[in-house]
Specification:
mainly alpha, 6 helices, globular
Length: 149
């Protein structure tokens, strides 16, 4: 399997800081393309924010794989990111549903909870990004896992 496909599609192995930043940059670029593409070409949804929120789901697995590899590289469990990813997914769903229910006037407590959970997930994701990309050693720790680089 190609090295980049393995980086983005398989959560196995571990990576160093440079490869982690390459993965993050590619994921951000893909998100930008999906957001711009969904805003420019999709007319099925009445709200552009709904399309933008739903555009984040295709890159969620890519982000899980890259982060799992880097967490393993610093000697942490890849499951450390699970609550953060669940919060981000709930926030994306909550924002998409909240915008569509706001258009019909059915705002509720569930939207507020999911939006708050998503905001927590976004902040926690940024903290995790800085920790893995800046504050940890550059090279992966020695382990019995398969090394990506």
């Amino acid at each position: 399997m190609n090295a980049y496909l393995r980086l983005f599609l398989s959560p196995r192995g571990m990576i160093g800081r440079r490869t982690y930043w390459h993965g993050v940059i590619v994921i951000v670029f893909i998100n930008c393309v999906l957001i711009l593409g969904s805003s420019a070409f999709a007319t099925a949804s009445p709200q552009p924010v709904t399309r933008i929120c739903l555009a984040g789901f295709p890159t969620l697995w890519l982000s899980i794989c890259v982060t799992a590899k880097r967490l393993r590289g610093v000697g942490a469990s890849p499951w450390l990111q699970a609550p953060i990813r669940v919060a981000v997914a709930a926030g994306l769903i909550g924002e998409a549903l909240g915008v569509s229910t706001a258009a019909t006037g059915n705002e509720g407590l569930m939207f507020a909870l999911m939006f708050g959970l998503g905001l927590f997930g976004l902040i926690a994701d940024l903290v995790l990004l800085l920790w893995l990309g800046v504050l940890t050693p550059a090279q992966p720790a020695a382990s019995m896992h398969e090394v990506f680089e």
